[in-house]
Amino acid sequence: MTDIDSIVLNFSPTGLLVMNAILAIVMFSVALDLKPSDFAQLLRAPKPLLTGLASQFVVLPTLTFLMILVLQPSASVALGLILVAACPGGNISNFITHRAGGNAALSVSMTGCATMGAIVLTPLNIAFWGQLYTPSREILSVVEIDPVRIAITVSLMLLLPLLAGIVLYR
């Protein structure tokens, strides 16, 4: 039986570039059906956006922590679950929302806001929830995030394809 802590994932820079390019293309395809007025509606009635963000950064980590308390996984698995719960949704959720006929402008707005908020909120959530579970407290280390690199990646994967799709639609 393999010890889960001995498994290492290595993503090559080329593989990450290809994956990010594919996600940008998906975002562009979603944006082809969006209009600036779709986003103006969210500014007039921000409750769904705020509810979604609160769910992402408060409700999901809380429910995940409660699940950890019930299941009592190993420290590394608990931290992995906390990490996944603390991270924002990705671009693929925008595509699925669009294909399902949902509110794509809301999905895109949530992705953008959550990704930018994650620069601060993800490390705080990981530190907070990870410290509360005694086994993970022992292996919890400082989470380092480069906000400039994240901003550039978000711009290239989310903002640039979004703006290009909306402009092309017009």
Automatic annotation (TrEMBL):
InterPro entries: BilAc:Na_symport/Acr3, Bilac:Na_transpt, Na+/solute_symporter_sf. The chain crosses the membrane at residues 12-32, 108-130, 150-169. Its main location: membrane. This is Sodium bile acid symporter family protein. It comes from Celeribacter persicus. Pfam families: SBF (PF01758). It comes from the Bacteria. GO terms for cellular component: membrane. It is found in: Membrane. It is a multi-pass membrane protein. The lineage of its organism: Bacteria, Pseudomonadati, Pseudomonadota, Alphaproteobacteria, Rhodobacterales. Keywords: Membrane, Transmembrane, Transmembrane helix.
